[in-house]
Structures are given as structure tokens and as C-alpha cells.
């Protein structure tokens, strides 16, 4: 029986459940209901312990009147804001001081008269502040006293004396901002940039960069400068091609972009009147675009690259060597002028590379260019750049100039051919929209000229730079890739024009068939170069190398699908067609290369994911055919030796018969 009921009686009025008084410490500790019997409660009596009661326990909760005062203050503030919302700024600045003066008065009492007009005293008197409703007076005068005949509103809160003199403790001083990049990391990132980034983005003269970097480091200011933004962009891109700075990469990228954004908001302090924008700012945006293509996403990189292209046009870098600009640049350091040329040509190539993926229109047009091609790398780094020819001259010249071109100049020429191919593709699409699915005579003329130009440049590359030496120069290596990529794109233009279908006599078009052979040969060359690229190291690879590899892999997968379909059509019912082709190893080498590059290149990750989806779809299409072919074989049940021998002889006959099909002859190239 509980202790609380042992005192209950059946006679007389009902007894309360517990006696008045405080609960003992043991019941509080065990969270039990104490019957408050003295000198010992029932719980302590059952446990055989001493019953102790603390009569000096402090009351719980806030002090009396504090909660009511806080509620009243909230109501007063809400009412004041509802009467005049435009006074929010004044309230946030002066509201606390004004409230403390008003609440010092008891509720319902008459406030003292306002002081005579005059300048506000220095002790914080708020009586002369402008009223929100016009005129002079205290902030509260127009809200409450006007409606209460000079009396305070009954809702005026009362602040306890203990809270009126309360002051917040002073905030600790802000620690000085630590430099994000210390000296040792700065030297390491500079070396990393020129080892891995500069071969693919050859903009800077190393001697000049290190001299300016040393000078800027000793004269550093807190405000962001174009030179500092450029250094941060260089280090950000260098971190993207390294694993040791992975933890700093995102922070430095965010800091770099914020600095560039703040630089755009400032006044133009560039001392030169030739250009309204600093060349360092253009270079920083270009490097940041390369970073975003490799590490963030394609959309963000596209927008940043477009911003850099507009700055290039604003600085008129496309006409550096025009007669008017040449007169203004007399006496200027030739290395500085060459850096401007290289900045333009890097932006020009980037415009073609990013449009290659989705066949988008170009921004920097070649028809208005009046800038010499970049000088050879050795002469540029030695401080004595050689003046080269214009792009139009290089496109129309023979092979006597090609041996003098630098890898960047070779990439510029091939990027130009690639850009013309993109424009040709877009024009052909418009013509098919208006004139039907066939290509016009003008389109065929442009197409043949572009194909001849690609073959000419590729032959010149092979003669001037052997393939073995291309592995030592990533940009030259990518130039070979770009030539083969353009060949595949030319074949896609012909196939999109309806040339892949048979003619009226049932034969394949020889011209289209020739372009398909070239495209397949180019795809297999890309696969071979990709396999050899493993020894070069993927950190030195061009950022847009996955675009060429993916295009070649797609072509090989398409050719493999056609071969398997043709083989399956000629295999008798009941026999399984082979699923192994000569393209499997080449496709796998492309997939392996993209898989290794996807850890530091988002373009490789996107293209690898697209290729995996295509392969899964093809496997699902071939799986029902294999299941149907296995059914007759189970009914026939031939002997094991007879089955293997018959299948082998049949495969040979099928391959011999299949040599007469034009599509299968592509496999020999």
C-alpha cells in the first residue's frame, strides 16, 4: 500500500493526497511524490533513511516582474513599428536609449516638460531628434503623447532597475587576417603552374613573371589589384592539377572570384589610355574559366569564358598589330606585346574548344583579326620574340612556314579549321531546314576544302613534329587530337546530310563511304594516342582532351554496333553471332583514360558517364537476340566437339562473306 494512502481514513471528510509543506530531499532526488509526514515521510521510512527537508530553497523561474516588463516592451515596440514603419532605422539606433528614459517613469505619471529648442547635448539627449511625422521632439511624442494628452501610454513597459544599467561586454578585437598563401606555398604553386599549366596555356614569360611577382610581394596592399587577382587565378588552376593542395582549392577559388568581382566594381585605375581594361584582369578570367571547366561545371565555365571574351574585345586584342595600334606600341617592351598576343590566341582557341562539344556559335570571329600569330616558345622565353605572320597568311601558305610555328600557333591554325567546320555544320543545318535533307553544291565545295585543309595540316604536323616528340609537348599532342577530331566532325556533317543512305541503284555513295573510312581511321588514331598518353601523365593533359577521346570512343562504339548487327543478320537461326570485335580494346583504352582523368577533370566525368549509358543501352538491345538464338540450339543438342567445330567453320565463312559489305571494310583501316 502506498505511503500516501496510509493516512487516509474512511470516516470524516476526505483527506488531501499530501500534507502541506516541502518535499524531502530523498523524494526530490528519486522524483517520487512525498506524503510530507513529519518527522519522517513514508518513502524514507520504508527505505530506513533519514528524512531531510530544505526550507531555504530558492524559487525557480525569472524574478518577479521581469517577464511582464519584457512582454510590455515587445508590445510597445510592435505598436510603434505598426504606427510608422519608416522609423525602423531610427528605432534600431536610438530605441534602447529612449526606452530606458521613458521606462524610468512610473506608469501613468506625467513626464517632465521637454527642454527648450537648441542643439542636442553631448550626453545623449534624444529630445531634439526629428520626429517621424515632422517637426522636433522626442521620438515617442508623435506616437503616444499626442493620443493621450501628454500622458504615457498604459502599455509603456517598466524596465527593472537591475536591467537599466546593463551594458554589453566589449567585443574582442578582430584578429589580423592571415595570408592565405604563405611564401613556401607561393613558390611551390608558381613552379607547379609552369610545370603543368603553362604547357597548355603558354601566356607568360617566366622571367618577367617572377620579377613582377617579387616586386608585388614586397609592395603588397590590402586592396585587390589586377596583378594579385592574376596570381590567385594562376595558383587556383595549379591547385586543380595537384593532389597536395586539394584542401585549399575551393577556398582559394572562392577568394579569387570575389576579388575579381570586387575589381569590376572599382573605378578603372589602369594608367594606360590604350585599353580600358587591364591585361592581367583578362588573363585572370581566362585562367578561372579553365578551372571552372575542369573542376566545377560546364555552365559556369561557359559564362566565365564569355566574360573573358568580352573583355578581350573591349581591350581590342584582336587588332594588336594593326597600323594604328602599332604606332602606339612603338618603344614598348616586345615581351609585353607578345604576352598580349598570346592572351588573345589562348582566348581564341578556348572559344573553339568550348563550342566543339555542343556545336554552339563562336564569339571571336577570325575575319576581323589583325594580330600576328604567337612567337616560338624559345624566343619568347629568351626575351626576343620573333614576329610571325598573320592567321590568314598561315591558312593560305604552303608548307614552307609550318616548321617555324610554335605548338600554340599550330593549335591556333587547327582551331581555326575546327571553327570553320563548326560554322560549316551550322550553315549545313540551316540549308537542310530550307532545302531538304541533301547537301547543296556550295556545301560540298566547303566540305571538300575543309577536308583537304585538315589532311594538309596533319601531314605537315607529321613531317615537322614526329608523333614521338608530341608526347613531350602536351599542346602539340592535343593538336594531333584536334586534327583527328575535325575529321570525325566532317564525317558527321555528311551523315547528317542524308549521304549515309543508299542511292537509287542500291549502292553506297562512294564519297560518303570515303568520309566514313577517314572518320574511323581518325578515331582509331585517337585511341592509339590515348593509349600512349598513359606514359605522359594525365596531370599534364589538356583540359579539353576528354572531348576528343569521347568523340573517338563514340565513333568506335557506333562502328562496333554496325559490325555486330551485320554479323547477326548473316548468322543462321540457332547460332550465336560473336560479340567480340577488333574495336573492343580501343574502346576500353578510351574508357580507361577518361576514368583516370575524371578525378580532376569534370569534362572527363561527364563524357564517361554518357559513354557508359550508351554501352548499357546496347547491351540491353543485344541481350534479347542472344536469348532467342539459344532456343534452337537447346533443341538440337549437338555433341560438344561437333558444335565447336561447326561454329568455328561457320564464323570463318561468315567473316569471308562479310568482306563484300562496305561497312565491314572500314574495320581494316
TrEMBL record:
GO terms for molecular function: DNA binding; DNA-binding transcription factor activity, RNA polymerase II-specific; zinc ion binding. GO terms for cellular component: nucleus. This is Fungal-specific transcription factor domain-containing protein. SUPFAM superfamilies: Zn2/Cys6 DNA-binding domain (SSF57701). It is found in: Nucleus. Residues 1-24, 102-157, 615-657 are annotated as: Disordered. Residues 1-12, 148-157, 638-648 have a biased composition (Polar residues). Residues 23-53 form the Zn(2)-C6 fungal-type domain. GO terms for biological process: DNA-templated transcription. It holds the Pfam family Fungal_trans. SMART domains: Fungal_trans, GAL4.
Amino acid at each position: 500500500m502506498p505511503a500516501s494512502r496510509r493516512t487516509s481514513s474512511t470516516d470524516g471528510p476526505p483527506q488531501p493526497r499530501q500534507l502541506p509543506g516541502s518535499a524531502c530531499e530523498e523524494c526530490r532526488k528519486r522524483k517520487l511524490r512525498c506524503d510530507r509526514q513529519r518527522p519522517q515521510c513514508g518513502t524514507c521510512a520504508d527505505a530506513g533513511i533519514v528524512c531531510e527537508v530544505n526550507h531555504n530553497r530558492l524559487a525557480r523561474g525569472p524574478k518577479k516582474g521581469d517577464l511582464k516588463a519584457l512582454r510590455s516592451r515587445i508590445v510597445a515596440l510592435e505598436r510603434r513599428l505598426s504606427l510608422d514603419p519608416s522609423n525602423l532605422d531610427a528605432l534600431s539606433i536610438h530605441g534602447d536609449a529612449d526606452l530606458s528614459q521613458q521606462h524610468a517613469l512610473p506608469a501613468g505619471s506625467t513626464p517632465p516638460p521637454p527642454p527648450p529648442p537648441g542643439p542636442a547635448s553631448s550626453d545623449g539627449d534624444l529630445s531634439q531628434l526629428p520626429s517621424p511625422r515632422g517637426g522636433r521632439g522626442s521620438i515617442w511624442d508623435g506616437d503616444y503623447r499626442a493620443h493621450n494628452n501628454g500622458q504615457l501610454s498604459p502599455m509603456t513597459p517598466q524596465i527593472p532597475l537591475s536591467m537599466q544599467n546593463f551594458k554589453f561586454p566589449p567585443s574582442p578585437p578582430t584578429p589580423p587576417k592571415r595570408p592565405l598563401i604563405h611564401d613556401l606555398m607561393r613558390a611551390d604553386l608558381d613552379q607547379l603552374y609552369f610545370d603543368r599549366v603553362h604547357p597548355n596555356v603558354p601566356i607568360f614569360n617566366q622571367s618577367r613573371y617572377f620579377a613582377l611577382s617579387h616586386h608585388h610581394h614586397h609592395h603588397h596592399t590590402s586592396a585587390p589589384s589586377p596583378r594579385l587577382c592574376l596570381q590567385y587565378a594562376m595558383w587556383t588552376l595549379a591547385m586543380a592539377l595537384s593532389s597536395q593542395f586539394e584542401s585549399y582549392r575551393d577556398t582559394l577559388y572562392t577568394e579569387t572570384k570575389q576579388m575579381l568581382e570586387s575589381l569590376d566594381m572599382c573605378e578603372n585605375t589602369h594608367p594606360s589610355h590604350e585599353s580600358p581594361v587591364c591585361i592581367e584582369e583578362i588573363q585572370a578570367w581566362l585562367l578561372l574559366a579553365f578551372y571552372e571547366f575542369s573542376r566545377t561545371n560546364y555552365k559556369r565555365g561557359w559564362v566565365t569564358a564569355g566574360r573573358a571574351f568580352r573583355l578581350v574585345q573591349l581591350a581590342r586584342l584582336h587588332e594588336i598589330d594593326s597600323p594604328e595600334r602599332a604606332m602606339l606600341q612603338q618603344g614598348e617592351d616586345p615581351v609585353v606585346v607578345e604576352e598580349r598576343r598570346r592572351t588573345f590566341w589562348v582566348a581564341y582557341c578556348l572559344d573553339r574548344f568550348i563550342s566543339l562539344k555542343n556545336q554552339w556559335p563562336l564569339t571571336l570571329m577570325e575575319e576581323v583579326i589583325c594580330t600576328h600569330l604567337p612567337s616560338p616558345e624559345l624566343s619568347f622565353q629568351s626575351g626576343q620574340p620573333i614576329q610571325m605572320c598573320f592567321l590568314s597568311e598561315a591558312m593560305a601558305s604552303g608548307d614552307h612556314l609550318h616548321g617555324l610555328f610554335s605548338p600554340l600557333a599550330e593549335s591556333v591554325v587547327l582551331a581555326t579549321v575546327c571553327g570553320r567546320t563548326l560554322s560549316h555544320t551550322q550553315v549545313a543545318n540551316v540549308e537542310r531546314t530550307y532545302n531538304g535533307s541533301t547537301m547543296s553544291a556550295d556545301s560540298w565545295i566547303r566540305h571538300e576544302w575543309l577536308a583537304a585543309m585538315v589532311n594538309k595540316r596533319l601531314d605537315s604536323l607529321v613531317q615537322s613534329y614526329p608523333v614521338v616528340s608530341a608526347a613531350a609537348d602536351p599542346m602539340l599532342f592535343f593538336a594531333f587530337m584536334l586534327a583527328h577530331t575535325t575529321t570525325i566532325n566532317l564525317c558527321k556533317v555528311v551523315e547528317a546530310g542524308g549521304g549515309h543512305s543508299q542511292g537509287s541503284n542500291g549502292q553506297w555513295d562512294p564519297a560518303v563511304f570515303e568520309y566514313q573510312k577517314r572518320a574511323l581511321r581518325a578515331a582509331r588514331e585517337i585511341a592509339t594516342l590515348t593509349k600512349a598518353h598513359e606514359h605522359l601523365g594525365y596531370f599534364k593533359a589538356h583540359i579539353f582532351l576528354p572531348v576528343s577521346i569521347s568523340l573517338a570512343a563514340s565513333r568506335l562504339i557506333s562502328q562496333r554496333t554496325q559490325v555486330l548487327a551485320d554479323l547477326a543478320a548473316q548468322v543462321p537461326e540457332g547460332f550465336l553471332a560473336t560479340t567480340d570485335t577488333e574495336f573492343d580494346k580501343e574502346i576500353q583504352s578510351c574508357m580507361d583514360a577518361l576514368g583516370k582523368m575524371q578525378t580532376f577533370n569534370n569534362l572527363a566525368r561527364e563524357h564517361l558517364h554518357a559513354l557508359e549509358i550508351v554501352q548499357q543501352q546496347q547491351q540491353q538491345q543485344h541481350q534479347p537476340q542472344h536469348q532467342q538464338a539459344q532456343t534452337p540450339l537447346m533443341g538440337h543438342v549437338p555433341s560438344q566437339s561437333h558444335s565447336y567445330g561447326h561454329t568455328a567453320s561457320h564464323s570463318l565463312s561468315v567473316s569471308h562473306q562479310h568482306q563484300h559489305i562496305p561497312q565491314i571494310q572500314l574495320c581494316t583501316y
